[in-house]
Specification:
- The protein contains 17 helices and 18 strands.
- It is α/β, with parallel strands linked by helices.
- The protein folds into 2 domains: about 1-250 and about 460-475, Rossmann fold, CATH 3.40.50; about 275-455, 3-Layer(aba) Sandwich (Rossmann fold).
- It has a 9-stranded mixed sheet with strand order 3-4-5-2-1-6-7-11-12, sandwiched between helices. Strands 15-14-13-16-17-18 form a 6-stranded parallel sheet, with helices on both faces.
- Helix 4 (about 110-125) crosses helix 5.
- The longest helix is centred in the C-terminal third of the chain and has 16 residues, at about 425-440.
- About 50% of the residues are buried.
- The protein binds adenosine-5'-diphosphate and alpha-D-glucopyranose.
- Adenosine-5'-diphosphate (ADP) binds near residues 302, 360 and 384.
């Protein structure tokens, strides 16, 4: 099958979170299973800078009255997966993030920037494709490509089927209805049975309404988003399309995230010998200004600092954990208030708490590898990748039983336990779970069993990629 994977971020070109990792790894797994998969990505400056051997393959106007854009063709570094780059510098070549400017506000023309991405995705799946390739299935990811299924449905000619994957239902791409005209959408689709959502033009709602199939990134989250509590207003639509909704658990790139070969690590290891992990821990402690203490349980966090991730719950119980002898390393950025509270904690506990507020790929691998216990107390978590990275690196995760965390981590009480699972979204419940993990760590033997179970667990993409293929086959 010819599959177009439309995405707004992809590792290692541009990344704000797990979507970038999925966009890099799933196409490779689909390709390995014999599919002709190509990625479509906006031509942000970072993408243009990092991609070599780009070739212009088409020039065309996306919306009436708009200047022409170029479509470039290239190959992803390392994997060689074919990628189409939507080259429209006036929209994508900007300093700061893909969705926001430096002070954290959304780019005011995001509707046009991602409406254009959606429209080009739909074009590549229609008989009017600007290149000599037409997708059978357009696979959309989150709201940024959510209008593609709408454009496909409105196409008169033969066109591709569409799959909409929800990576996080909180991000919906809701805009003023005045964007309908510039985005070449008929007023008639501004309807409850169309793109309208509470008086706004909603990219995600459009995707959920028009796509042939809806997927989210874990079976548990597929159920949770059909409830008022976690559906963010989309639960009614999702429930009405229940038969078309499924959950396919994300995998991880097992080459990129492999403690035996990881180039970001100072000492590498595998499940047959964990000793170098301890050497790495001592080096990391020194590097971050923590007391170099092999015995102190080192708790690790790598995360967007947002309400979703439950890291405010952690702040409440940290003093007790630190007073009990634990150390903490945090790598993350996000909400200003959380950043500030974590930085204050670091100044209160010099040598015991390290907080780094920035995006740092190399450090993220080191924290994952050299912490003893990884913390992910999310209030909700569509899938989560970090808990899987933690397991693979012999750093058992403490997670809340929600979404993909519930589907990927087995509690230590089970013979095949890979981490520590708690239920209540409260700092008391989190404290109990982290304390249990620390007790287990101090007991050594039982902890090692959990480490090894996690390192040997299959968290790769092959079975989930096959599930996506089966899904494509049911519609094409
Ligand atoms: P989400 O997509 O909700 O942020 P995931 O667990 O799916 O959560 O993926 C997060 C990804 O972003 C992981 O690859 C993680 O290592 C990475 N990440 C998050 N914050 C940082 C940071 N400050 N520096 C480097 N990588 C980060
Ligand atoms: C989103 C979710 C995260 C998921 C990632 C990749 O960012 O918050 O849980 O792992 O997408 O699907």
């Amino acid at each position: 099958m010819k599959i177009l994977f439309a995405t707004s971020e992809i590792h290692p070109l541009i990344k704000t979170g797990g979507l970038a990792d999925v966009s890099a790894a799933l196409p490779v797994a689909l390709q390995a299973l014999g599919q002709d998969v190509r990625v479509l990505i906006p031509g942000y400056s970072q993408v243009l800078d990092k991609l070599e051997n780009k070739r212009k393959v088409a020039t065309f106007s996306v919306f009436p009255g708009q200047p022409g854009v170029n479509l470039l063709s290239a190959k992803m570094p390392d994997s060689g997966v074919p990628v189409y780059v939507l080259d429209a510098p006036q929209y994508y070549c900007r300093v700061a993030g893909p969705y926001q400017y430096e002070l954290g506000g959304d780019w005011p023309d995001n509707a046009m920037r991602f409406g254009m991405l959606s429209k080009v995705a739909a074009l590549l799946g229609s008989a009017d494709s600007p290149v000599a390739w037409q997708a059978d299935v357009v696979h959309c990811n989150d709201w940024q490509s959510g209008l593609a299924p709408a454009y496909l449905q409105m196409t008169q000619s033969v066109h591709a089927k569409s799959v909409m994957t929800i990576h996080n239902i909180v991000f919906q791409g809701n805009f003023d209805r005045d964007w309908l005209g510039p985005l070449d959408l008929p007023q008639s689709c501004f309807d409850m049975h169309g793109v309208e959502f509470h008086g706004h033009l909603s990219f995600l709602k459009a995707g959920l309404h028009y796509a042939d199939r809806i997927v989210t990134v874990s079976p548990t989250y597929a159920r949770e988003i059909q409830s008022t509590e976690l559906g963010h207003g989309m639960q009614g639509l999702l429930t009405s399309r229940n038969g078309d909704v499924s959950g396919i658990l994300n995998g991880i790139d097992e080459n990129e995230w492999n403690p035996a070969t990881d180039p970001h690590l100072t000492s590498r290891y595998d499940s047959s010998d964990l000793a170098p992990k301890l050497a790495g821990k001592l080096a990391l402690q020194k590097h971050l200004g923590l007391e170099a203490n092999a015995e102190a349980p080192l708790l690790g966090v790598v995360s967007r600092l947002t309400y979703q991730k439950g890291l405010d719950l952690l702040l409440e119980c940290l003093p007790k954990l630190l007073d009990g002898g634990a150390q903490l390393v945090v790598l993350g950025s996000g909400e200003v208030d959380l950043q500030r509270r974590y930085q204050q904690l670091a100044s209160r506990y010099p040598g015991r708490v390290s907080v780094t507020v920035r995006f740092d790929e190399a450090l993220s691998h080191q924290v994952m590898a050299y912490s003893d216990i990884f913390l992910m107390p999310s209030r909700f978590e569509p899938c989560g990748l970090n808990q899987m990275y933690g397991m693979r690196y012999g750093t058992p995760p403490v997670v809340r039983r929600t979404g993909g965390l519930a589907d990927s981590v087995t509690d230590a009480s089970q013979p095949d336990g890979t981490g520590f699972v708690f239920d209540e979204p409260s700092s008391a419940a989190l404290y109990r779970a982290v304390s249990a993990a620390i007790d287990c760590y101090r007991g050594k033997k039982a902890f090692q069993r959990i480490q090894i179970n996690g390192m040997r667990r299959d968290v790769g993409w092959s079975s989930s990629a096959q599930k996506y293929i089966n899904l494509y086959q049911t519609i094409s």
